User: Fold these one by one.
Assistant:
Number 1:
Amino acid sequence: MTRLEWFEDLKMGDRAAFENLVKETQNMVYRVIYAHVQDRTVSEDLTQETFLKAWLSLNGLKDPLKLNGWLCSIARHTAIDWVRKQRPQKTLVPHLSADLGEGSDDLLIRARRVLKELDPYEREMIFLRYQQGLSYKEIAAAMEMSSSGVGEKLFRIRAKMRESIKKREESI
Amino acid sequence: MKCDDLRIKISYYLDNELPASEQKELLEHLDSCDTCSKLLSDLQQADNLVTAATSNVRLQKDMTLEIQRLLPNKAKRNTSRTLIIAAAIMLVVLTPLGLGLFQKQEPLRLVIRGNVEVTGNVIKTHKGQEGVVQLADSSCITLKENTEIWVERSSSVIHMLTGSAFFEIQNQPQFRVTTPVAQVRVNGTKFGLTLDGGADMKVAMLTLFVISGMVELVNAKGSYSFLEGEKVFATSNESPSKINVEDRRALELERALHWLARHQNEDGSWSIVGCIKNCGKHGRSGKCEPTEGDDEYDVGATGLVLLAFLGAGHTPESKYEKNKINYGNLVDKGLKYLLKIQDHSGRIGKESDHLMYNHILASLAITEAYLATKDTRLHESVDKALNYLKKAQNFSGDGERLGWRYIPRCGDNDSSVTGWASMLLRSASQAGFKVEVDVIVGIYKWYWEATDGETGVVGYDRRWEPKYPLGAVIRGLNGKDKFDILPAVTAMKLVAYLPFRTETMQELSEKEIEQVKKLVKELGDDDPLSREKARTELKKFGPRVVEHLKPFVNDKDPERAESVRSVIQAVKVSVKFQKDEFSARSVAKLLEFLPAWDEKSREVDFYYWLLGTLAVHGMFKTETPERQKWDKAMMKALIDSARQNGEKDGCKEGSWEPVDRWSCKGGRLAMTAMGALILELYQGMRVLGIYTRDKEDIVKLIKNLAHNDAKVRDETAKKLVSIGDVVRPYLEKELKETNNEEVRKACSQILETLRKNQEQREKLLRDKKFIRDGNCSTGGKCFEETGHTDDIKSCARCSKEGAAHSCCRVCKDCAKELGICITCRKKIAK
């Protein structure tokens, strides 16, 4: 079966094709959500929710090249909705504090703190680049921006990471 | 090559995204430059760290099976229904028109979703149901309730028998929709079709609404082409007639207002998220999902909705009723709700992170209502609300007033809240409330700070600088690093700069001149604190005071002369902020960001569209090319979005789908209220305290009073009455100058109607409006106990000079006659 045929089946709501999609993209969806909510359990729940929404809106799918973008956008909106609903309780920050995980390595702990301080979209980009290994073009499609925008943004995030790590090193 | 230029290339290189041709150049440079080489190794280290730090962000288990289990059974029905259509039968049975045009093609698969009944090749929806038919080339047909279509084998021919549907057709030169009325030929376009008529369709009527592209309509009379934005009625044997834009705007406005009316809460308020609870209460089917939004802004949204009703001329006295909802009662209830939640400090709405939006919008609604009704209950509320607003204004480091932010006097300013505050102050000044010059100068000063002189672009919370990619420092909701708020705050600035018609800009009154004299005397006081106080007070008079200070510039008391000079200097500086040469550049910038309906990119921005229209109409009072450019784009965007207005008779009808950039805040409710306000602007109504209709428009309207057609004359007279008292001087002028007896008669009649309306308002005021429910607990002695002083010059009831009370505006004698307490405005029990 070619990818295009698979995509046609997916559009028609074929369960096997959808299973394939989940297998292929579940970690990406999880990471996009995690970038916004920073909580493992919640991210897992929202990953499920994202795929359910995707299943129910397969008719919104038109271009196989935009599959990642479509899925990431559902994931992102699901995550943002969740974050927004949490805001009134103001429990978000304490709830998340220990979640990115602590390592034994000092540097690692520092890097994770820096990550926590980034804005959610920047975190999302980091996960897509460093863990999903997506190219600029793919990230651009997933985050609805231009490739050059991705390049510039990643450069800025890198510089920010470098500065923050340096500062922390100096302050210790 | 400069190191600075290469920095970003190092990042590209690390990501394997640098073209081979540039890699060589970079590597050569790295060999010779220690700084860049160090940067590369630092970034590599940072990269390794990030990879390690994010490596644990992954699912701990495979969720495939779990998700498969959770997929709803309903989806089974959603999985494909594939129709292989028997073409021969279709052609014989179903094609009343254009049979010879069809070409046979390969059988195609269709995807059908939603609640539809499929029998052979007939697809049908019942009451309250909706379905989508997707053709193989991704063309989409959305069937509204009670609709029936038959699909041809080629799928490039659809037979529509009844109901309404939206078509989004890809590039298919052969695509046709046949109906009992006419045939519709299209190619790569979007349009809506509605068929009305009896069961036999003998007297059927078709409504075609072209959303984009071009549509050709063929009936027994001939072939006609229609372009985007056009709406047409057609029958089988008459030429199709276009529905004009003005009618369409009026229709959409009516639908939007009715949606808002249907979703009011019992207590008079409106809820952004909770509005859904009111769905179905008025016999409409379906739920208005999704609502989107954040209920933190409910009070502000209530204000915005009330402004939409007030803009359309519905005041608490309005008798207008639609489907058993009385708009006057609805506005009255809404205003009462806002008055009820106002606290002793004047604040409307709870303490929250963004409370100023709530306070300002609610106050603006009350002020506009006061302006329309002169209801004294509202007067007191506006007074308190203005005091709160003034207290919330920020001060700069040198003690001068600046702008506002989400929360009172927090030191930060932003161009959005400040703009809303300016609208409230403008409306209040028109309603006769005192607005000090320094408060307004604060607004000018903030925008002066925030505007980039080169481009005219306004920043959101600081001055915009070209180094920002597109504007202010706020991120778009779609993750684009786009600084999206830019055009909206630039428009907001232009709106804030529209002229204030305030008394404070006029000559000083005699009382004020006395005050100035007293203050000048104090400038020579020995106590430096008193001198400082006098200087501050004098500055508050603004530029008007200069003439009265000039005689003291060379006063023999050097202390006083110096102070006088410093006050004049300060006032002149403040004038600088009011003269803004950047406005032309700002408006040119707006014209680069024209409204366009594209829900996918979240470029839809009703907040910007509303302010942009206000700004462009404020700047260009006549039909200049710039204004035409904006209006064309705005109308197209609104007409495009009108298809979103829900199915006919469904609960969603009249509302806009919450796909707007700010839907996460205001949701469907605020979007619909703003949609209504934009439509009102184009209908020439007063919106958000701003009246953009130019005097030339009024003059043109008055000329229509001499029109040959009696119908046009009647319509014109009605329009002039609906515009209100603003037209009075123009009518009086016309009355003096014209010799046309008809026109003179019409002018007198309109003036008489306006006078009667005014009288009626005043009568309501005199008779009952200022009396509160309940009895005065002190038997009418509140006044004496509080020792409240009178400062209103004439009584609202008997017009006697120098006797009225500040909060209820009637004199003691009238209060006694009416049997009410002058202070608490409750009845005195006899």
Number 2:
Amino acid sequence: MGFQTGAALLEAVVLAVISREETGTYGYKITQEVTAVLDVSESTLYPVLRRLQKEALLEVYDAAYGGRLRRYYRLTESGAAQLAFYRLEWTRYAAKISGLFEGECL
Amino acid sequence: MTKQEFLSRLRLLLAELPAEEREDALRYYEDYFDAAGAENEAATAAELHSPETVAADILGRRVPRGAQYEDLYSRDCTAPPHRTGSGWKIALAAFGTAALLCALGLVAAAVLGLVDMRGLPRAETALENLPTLSAGEETRLDADGNAAANGGTSTDGQAATNGTDPDGQTATSGTDTGTDGTPPSGQTAAGVGGAGAGASAVPSVDTSYAAEDVESLSISMSIGALTVEQGAAGSALRVRAANVTDETFSAALDGDTLEIKDETEYGGLLGKGLSGLLGGEGAAALDEAQLPQLVVTVPAGMVFEDIEITLAAGQATLCALRADDTLSVTTSAGKIYYDAFAADDIELTTKAGGIAPLSGASGAVTAKDKAALTVKAGSLRTGRVTAPEMRAEASAGELVADAIDADEVTLKTSAGDMTVGLLSADDISLKASAGSLGVTLAGYETDYDCDVSASAGDVCFNGESYAHHVEQYESNHGSHGSGHGGAAAGAHHTLEISASAGNVNVCFEH
């Protein structure tokens, strides 16, 4: 897509993707879902996940899958709160841009 | 390339990372390959481009340490300082020279958009709509009756501020509180932002308090955008809020403390996930759920007695906060940006989320008595910290201070990481029960009387292990005794290091 993705939007989308699975989701799936909507390379996801984990917006746990342990990510309460903030920031932002594109008065 | 080839190569490329971080990354990519399926190894490797690309993305955000904070927190066009040199040593000059007003950050921020900036959405942009409402639309909350009683000092000004003028930029300075003289650029920035469109955000509260009635300030927000900005000297203390209801919001004087509280629950605002976030529900969602927005304008030069600010989630920009007694700032998920803090006692705490200087601001933390920085999780970044007594603790997460200037300093990491650019103090205690602690000490090694104990952790001096370092030192200087520095003449600082399981890295300035 023609728009660059900033750190905030990427963080917001990652939190949103993970929030869709109540029991958490794993790195590969997060990467697939994020790259489906944002033009970012696969390798940018790990640093973001790591950072969000450090910030305690995400927590990780291991669960058995296919005979070995797989790492899952899920939102902490803080992460859910910050996602709520981003969601509303986005609606406000998107409404303004859409309004501009559609010729509404500023 | 097979998974094993990819991972082996990646391991080599990440050699410079601490073992824990390297293993975490390798574990992630091993999982990644497994999830993609054994039959797709080559395709997965190709999708990731190369181990070099993957490593660059990991290292690029980490080396030199502290750089990731710029990635995350730089909020405008100020380029992140390019830091070279040894690992975690932080270039002080990059921040010290940028002693600009926080207002500059606001101006720059107001100009930039959300998507194409590297940082985060800013509290001040969330408030753009505030000053441009037409006067007729104002539905003023009578916050527990107090707002009306205590307001009044500048209610006339509101009409001008909210003037129906479509070019709302100039209206802000039209208040009769003195801002029409030479408004500080912070206020101008708010006004420029105010050109934003739409009457969608209704300022449901706009109250002013005479500065002489207010000694202390307490702000507590559960979610939303908070801005504390500097107004004109001699003006009233003004509180504006939007998207709040009288069930959740209150602002009132309790004695001489101005207490502002919003308890909007964020739970109800969740749940739509990606489609809600990015899909076409924008307009509908905007109607049903608006983010609380709060702007507090503090007259220039005002010094409070106590200041207490708590932000559970969301974003805050804090400028011009000075206290005679205590200043306490806490966030449990949100991101807080500030220009500088000054008070007798300063406490900064992140339970999650982050606190960091506004881009271009010094981020100085200046305490006449004590400064306490606590990271329970999340990240905390400061400019120079000046305090006779200074304590910092990272139980998880990361803490980075450009410099510390103190008499007595205790730095503790129980699982988190801590980095201090330049530490100058008489008595220094460094404890790493886990996690890692990296410090550059002012002066020469011989200035310090060292007492080092490491049971399971590692202690390094200038990049080499302490044991080896002592051996070298003693063979060169013929010194004996428990601590090698202990026998050095002229040592007038004490340095106590204990690494029960964590790592301590000490470098000396000279």
